[in-house]
Here is the input.
Amino acid sequence: MTSERGEAAAVPGLTRRADAGRDEVPDGGAARHGGKAPPSAASTRSPVTQRAWLPWAVGGLVLAACFGLQSQLYAGQERTVATVFMFVGLAQAWNLIGGYTGYACFGQVVFFGLGGYTTAALMAHAHVSFWLALPASGLLAAIWAALIGLPLLPLKGHYFAVATLGVAEGTREVVTNLPSLTGGGAGISIPTVGADATTGYLGNDGFYVLFLLLAAVSVLVVAIVSASKLGFALRAINQDEDAAASLGVHTTRTKVSVFALSGFLTGLLGAAYGFQQVTIFPARLFDVNFTVLMVIMVIIGGSGTVVGPVIGAAFLQFVSEYLRQHFTEAHPFILGAIVIVAVILLPQGVVSYAGSAWRNRDFSLLDNIRKYRL
Amino acid sequence: MLALLASGCGSKGERAQTGSPDSLVLGASMSLTGSLAREGLLTKEGYDLCQATVNAKGGVPIGDRKYRLDIRYQDDTSKPDTAGTLVDQFNDQGVKLILGPYGSATTEAAAAVVERNHQVMADSAGADDKIFEKGYTRTFAVLSPATRYAASIVKAIAELAQPRPKRIAFLSADDGFSKTVTAGGTAEAKAQGMEVVATEYFPNGASDVSASLTKVKSKQPDVIIGSVHLVEGVAIIKQAKELGITPAGGFGETVAPPTPDFVQTLGPIAENVLGSTQWTPQTSGEDDWFGTAADYVTAFKTKFGRVPEYHNAEATAACLTLVLGAQQAGTTDPDKIRDAVAGLNAASFFGPITFDPTGKNVAKPMAVIQIQHGKPVTVWPKSDAEAPLIWPGLS
Amino acid sequence: MSQFFQATIYGLLQGGLLALIAAGFSLVWGVMNVVNLAHGAFVLVGAYLAWELSRVGVDPFLGMLVAALALFAAGYAIQRLLVNLVVNAPVFITLLLTFGLELLLVNGLILLFSADYRSIRTSYASRSLVLAGDVRVPVGRLLAFAVAIGITLALVALVRRTRTGLAIMATGMDRGAARLMGIRARHVYALTFGIGAAIAGAAGAMVGTVDTFSPADAGRFTLFSFVVAVLGGLGNMYGALLGGLVLGLVEAWGSQYLPGTLVNAVAFAVLVAVLIVRPSGLIGRAHYAARVEV
Here is the structure.
């Protein structure tokens, strides 16, 4: 029995294990719960029970560790780590639409900016509490995602990317041109002191926890989606949309819902970010660099996986922070070189590489180059 | 894993020493890269000169000891949120005295953090009045506020121009700083009895302002004032010539004309353009560290090999403010330094340094220059003027 | 009415320049399916090269040729040695590679030249021809426009009439079949990238003559190249020209008749509208969307 399973494990995904509740889709490395090592051939426990709780336990441990970490950090470092959490959340949100579904949205920052501005406008003009503005911002971003998703999601590949980029830039311009609502180019400030302040400023400690929770929620959502029928549908759409449609997947409905979900998560993070910054400007909150960073983090980490974006976000943020502190003038230059090297050596992302390298016991990075070069 | 994570992140947690006990540490979050890199570097040069000058004279005398000035730089990549994080990180390291970043957006972000952390900031390049309408008590700006930028040009024209122009048009970038500048300028124009025939806005950083110029052309102003930065300032003059827009009184712009790039880029068509500036080598005032404005020019030339711009001077002045504050307080305690700075009433190479309760420097006037024979020449205030105003600007 | 004509003239001239900036980007994307995020940086390198040459007295229109040659060589090398390594990888890998390249180039330029704004001054660029109704046509922009048209026509001729051009088009349509026909795909790809970079360099020289530039402009150039390339249809040189002109006109009319700050919103609205209604671009051909790759 065990050797059979061992053989089955050695041929990834091509045999259907009757006792595994879900298929592993043969796309060369999309991990299910977290790219954990496959059960060893000598294990006598059934793979399902061994695998099912392990990733969740690890996730819970990591979460607890991050909470505990807070007591070890000073305020400035806390902000840096809070930013890492924010990018983990953002990367996971992009992962939903870009990684799993394969629709690379280049305008993701529009949800971020809308979230931030909704919160700012609600708190500054309507004196709404932040805890009401937060879900409202996510909701508004989700609605916008659904609205633009309907005409844009039929586009494929690069066209979808450019169209969403156009929408993002256009939305920024519109926001800049509504000064009575958004302050325009001069920015808008959330009142944090005085009679107008509805919610006290959370401070570095508060925002650390807030971003950590939002990041945890994002990872959780992606993990649940990944393991659910929705995740199956997304992967099917990614690989061959027409075949998926012929299998009975409602492609339009699925795509729009996951786009809205992705927008919702991004909007929440934008709201938190807006509150943290207090004064926000359209140029910053709709900055295309946010989108580019999200894409890089997901791809370097491993798109279409749960753990990949977390690793990618943490790695990239820490590396760029370290470089910025120690090479004050040349740090973007060095970051560019690192990105190039990372992309050449690990084009499928860290998690997928780790997964297939472990499975095939082949750790050669140069093989990647041989595989992907012209 | 917990320990691994904790130690991995915690290794940055070693509280960095705040320098040796004989040094006064100032933290500066600068735009060393990004869209404001050029002005950020100019600001850094100003801070560097201050540090070199003060240390060459033995350091800051605080109480009965002399402290070396030690300025620590970090790059905020021209982004306001990074600037805020950096000020927090400085606070972690025990650095309570902060030198301001370049630009109003980054300064605003830094000021919010400074207020929360009970640090003290000397603002060298954030002029937007809005920074000072938030009730902050720990940020002090040595430079004149944004409302004076265009208003000074208008005032200079009103005082010196014969015949006085009647119709004035404003072209403005749409960022917060420029909008405040324009508001101040239009108010001053109306107060001086001129008619504001048009106020056109264009996106910040636009290098093509032809549309706004064309709209203004039909209104036939006597003078066109630009509330701009370098790129738009150059674009206005260049494209006005291309489009054949020739207001009799010529042009006046903020920020751009005093910079060497302006004349270099435009060449002869920059002649007679007016500009407002925070400082010129003719500014009156003298202090013990830098002498007069002319002495400052000499010192800068010796160190950097070229003539200083006003961005350099305002940075040095901000650093000087903290130095004077520490001197007067007689201690390195940030709260006492804050109080000393708030009560400062000092003359300096940059002009008078005095702060009103909101932290603005209201004693220092802006100066107005005019490009004459390819060089910026001070024409206003009359007491500092090098040469008379050439009017009308376009003959 | 003369306001309208003035805006139209300006829009067309600016559009020609935009078309030149975007032509190389569109070519590379269309033929190789590589989205070159460093394209704006190439434009800037061209501008700086022409600026350096102008400081020793070389006219920018000559400097343009030098910049084009230098960038051709650099582009060829970059493709052959760097981008080739990831051509078969998932499509967004090349995107990241060029993003890293852009960081390298732009910050390299800042380190070399500082972030100051530069402009190439010529004696003739600021003069204007005067048409009826006091409508002005600036000479510098007119020359840049002429160069843009010239290069576009030259490119079309290259692609349709020379063996090299046909090889490029063939490789773009079906790389596997092209290789079977004896076309050296690696070399052709490198040629294409080099040509794209060369045009970008020439565009940079033109930009330097009519506008001010600094390393911070790289992103803006790439963004506009995106818009123009998609507007006109990927890989289509006439399309790039048309896309550029359309964008230029839309921006000029938009900023004339709407508040000046809305102009970019209008441009992007046009882009999105075109994509929804006609995704292959105004005159693009659908076969680039269904590419077979080996």
Notes: Chain B has two domains: 20-144+282-354, 147-277+367-384. Residues 37-56 of chain B form the longest helix (20 residues). The first strand of chain B starts at residue 23 and ends at 30.
